[in-house]
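job 3f2a | input accepted
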Amino acid sequence: MPPDLLWLPLLAGTGMTLLLALAGVGLFLKGSAWQALALSQWAAVGGVAASALTWPVLPLALGVSGGMMWLLRLQRQGEHAALASFLAGLALVTLLAANAPQASLAAARWAEGQLYFVAPADAWAVVGLTLLSLPLLRPLKRIWLRSQLLPNLASWAVPGLPMRLAEAAWLVAVIVMGAMVFGVPAALSTLLFPAWISALRARHLQHWLLHAVLLALAAFMLAWWLSLWLDQPFAPVLIVTHAAAGITLWALRSVPSSTRRSTP
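job 3f2a | predicted structure (264 res):
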């Protein structure tokens, strides 16, 4: 691909990586990491259905994924419901792809990601969501901390309904846009791996957020360079990069403790 055509995918990928890393920390703090599986897969259901019906992709993907988040938050068995809905969404995407040629192409896009061929409108939507997220970061951190550390707050002290709806809408938008730009597997990898790895060393929330963002951006840039250099699809290279980073950091973290155990 000519260098002058790479700046837009690079811009979209960098912004998406930043948002997914922040959302991943929020999902872990709220104990809702399993929701990412269901929301990303049902975003693919909406996107594939929209392609089969020749409807606008992003509005339907957002609507379907938002409806699934609402249903999941009504369930008491959150992990089991999220896993079941993920499997149901996977089955629906497979059925749609098997019965409609246009849906088959769309399903491949949602599975593999099309970062290098991202549409300008989608790229600028990512940029807009990134800029919109900046003033939301402080209230989002407040919601995430209170949901984990102070679950028994009085009703007057918890964030109001508008802010909770804004947080839910933000999470849905980030997950849907991430799945559309990176593909479902790579978006899930960016959501989960940096937040999970960074939690091993985080001293407080600010440190966790910063560490997760830096790790996600470093993995993205490395995967970007490797995929171009090796002429490989971006999404699997990104997932392998996340896995390698996780194994490396876990090994480095375990060295001091094993050394201490071996010291007489």
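job 3f2a | Residues 151-157 have pLDDT under 50 and may be disordered.
job 3f2a | closed
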